[in-house]
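BUG: 3D viewer hangs when loading the predicted structure for this chain

Environment: internal workstation, default settings.
Expected: structure renders.
Actual: progress bar stalls at 90%.

Input used:
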Amino acid sequence: MKKRDTFTYDFKIGNKIVHSGITNDLDRREQEHQQRWPNGHIVKVGAAKTRENALVWEGTKKKTITP
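Structure tokens produced before the viewer hung:
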């Protein structure tokens, strides 16, 4: 059985999603995004997934990133 060690997330500023992605370390990824968007925060979407399932989820997300 494959490990469910990958998280799906939205990075938000207020109520606006500025980026969606996957990671195995939410705290590290939030800090990385905060370098670009200091007032933002991560909101985990659903439960941990296998990397393969997380990649499928990521492929369904809109690919535009707000500057």
